[in-house]
Amino acid sequence: MSFLQPNGPVIDLGVNIDHVATLRNARGTVYPDPLRAAMLAEQAGADVITLHLREDRRHIKDADVVALRPQLMTRMNLEAAVTREMIDFACAVRPQDVCLVPERREEVTTEGGLDVIRYYKEVDAAVRQLQGEGIRVSLFIDADEAQIGAAADLGVPVIELHTGRYAEAGQDELAHELERIRAGARFGAARGLKVNAGHGLHYQNVQAIAAIADIGELNIGHAIVAHALFAGFENAVREMKAIMVAARLAAYART
């Protein structure tokens, strides 16, 4: 949060609005409106608005992306699968950022990182097409040196580390998973990549991830939308951003 400490450490919050659309679609209404959620999130301090246009359109719809693009004051981070349909759509809308993610129709939510090594050719073609339209590309990957190295070889400027295993870890595994994220972030930064992170983060587990100096942005959705039911959307965003910034400043003070 640069206005708190302009020359100090900064960590950005990307607010994922997918599950506002999930609630809307559950009843087939026009409300709650993801566009309004995005506007409120920006007013409350969100640095990025993230949304995932899935192939089955289970939450965000094409029209949501089109409506949001010219309205955002910050940045649109569009998550998309590596398919011709999604890449062509992204090139037509031209968000500031596209994050390429793996996708299976039967999954409840994204279950792991994109296998850049296995699908190197397909990912390379998608990256080239998006970059040709002036779109910054990131890859949603596991904190694995081989995957991070492959991402760097593709020439993408940004990676997003999948934090799902950390978020789901029990006490016996928590320290190991946290160190895995730290090591991945350190390795990515050393390769010249901007390192983001996200998945499964909430108000009780985000602190340790936010404290990692090599991570520049966290993307969080479900926890914020859930907390907003009780605290209000703007308050939920402000609380998350405050927790992240406090964790980063505390870590910075210890160095």
Automatic annotation (TrEMBL):
It is found in: Cytoplasm. Homooctamer; tetramer of dimers. CDD domains: PNPsynthase. GO terms for cellular component: cytosol. It catalyses: 3-amino-2-oxopropyl phosphate + 1-deoxy-D-xylulose 5-phosphate = pyridoxine 5'-phosphate + phosphate + 2 H2O + H(+). Belongs to the PNP synthase family. Its EC number is 2.6.99.2. Keywords: Cytoplasm, Pyridoxine biosynthesis, Transferase. It comes from Massilia atriviolacea. The record marks E160 as: Transition state stabilizer. Catalyzes the complicated ring closure reaction between the two acyclic compounds 1-deoxy-D-xylulose-5-phosphate (DXP) and 3-amino-2-oxopropyl phosphate (1-amino-acetone-3-phosphate or AAP) to form pyridoxine 5'-phosphate (PNP) and inorganic phosphate. This is Pyridoxine 5'-phosphate synthase. It holds the Pfam family PdxJ. 3-amino-2-oxopropyl phosphate binds at N16, R27, G200, G221, H222. One of its GO terms (biological process) is pyridoxine biosynthetic process. The active site is at H52, E79, H199.
